[in-house]
Amino acid sequence: MEQSDIIAENIRIIRIIKGWSQEQLALSAGITPSYIGQIERREKTPTIGIIEKICNALDISMVDLLSIHDAKGDSPRIKNTSKQSLEEIRQVMLEVLRDNKLINCSSQAIHTEIQPKTKGES
């Protein structure tokens, strides 16, 4: 993963962890919401000045922004956020997705069991 991809992903992750919308981050950083979206979608590469504004808004250092997401999956160092690591958050999200899939599968099974039988079925 390239450094610009890491920056974009980390901005998105930290923003979501903080519970902020792109608009909230943009307002706090003094840039436009569309530019935040373009950065997160990797359509634009932010300048050092923009990265500094975003880091100040998120209350993290530039070093932290570059080191939060790495190949090893090391825990992040994010100020004023949950003490859970990104890996723990990912695990919880996966469990929720699995639970939703099980619920959907159960609902489909129940729906199938409730369906009236057609002629010829036993």
TrEMBL record:
GO cellular component, one term: cytosol
Pfam families reported for this sequence: HTH_3 (PF01381)
UniProt KW Ribosomal protein keyword: no
Protein name listed in UniProt: HTH cro/C1-type domain-containing protein
Organism of this sequence: Paenibacillus solanacearum
Listed GO MF terms: DNA binding; DNA-binding transcription factor activity
Keyword Transcription regulation in annotation: yes
Keywords noted in UniProt: DNA-binding, Transcription, Transcription regulation
InterPro entries: Cro/C1-type_HTH, TransReg_Diox_bact_type
SMART domains: HTH_XRE
Residue span(s) of domain HTH cro/C1-type: 11-65
